[in-house]
Design brief:
141 residues; 2 helices; rod-shaped
Length: 141
């Protein structure tokens, strides 16, 4: 194994580590996106629950009118958090795709290098066989 092949193997190990890290980041980003989506749904459901409670006279309509801006603000915060989480998951997905592409490229280089080394070994072996064949023919006998 040549030093170039060893270097390519090290590069592949490095890229595999980057892929693993990118996968972990992707999983974390998706979990955060899912949590933000749940928070938005909960905030929207809270407004609907308060509206229904106000309609059924469990609370006065004035209390609902007073509470509504706070509920709407919670929905807006949840939407903003969801948008940020979605952007983060898209970025993590892009990072993972780039890491996978780099790993694939390094692996292809290693495979090509190994094929080249195999071809060189085969040529050397064939040359040795040819040389031995010539020597055998030269021996009188």
């Amino acid at each position: 194994m040549t030093s170039r092949t060893r270097a390519l193997r090290s590069l592949i190990r490095l890229h595999r580590t980057k892929v693993d890290e990118a996968r972990a980041m992707m999983a974390q980003a998706l979990a955060e996106e899912h949590a933000a989506h749940r928070q938005l749904e909960n905030s929207q459901a809270a407004i609907e629950n308060e509206r229904e409670a106000a309609r059924s006279d469990h609370t006065t309509p004035d209390a609902f009118r007073h509470w509504l801006p706070f509920g709407q603000e919670a929905v807006e915060r949840a939407r903003d958090a969801l948008h940020a989480a979605t952007r983060a998951s898209h970025q993590a997905r892009e990072t993972l795709m780039q890491a996978n592409a780099a790993l694939k490229a390094a692996t292809a280089l290693l495979e090509r290098r190994q094929e080249e080394e195999k071809a060189v070994r085969a040529r050397r072996e064939l040359a040795e066989i040819d040389d031995m064949s010539r020597r055998v023919r030269m021996i009188p006998g």
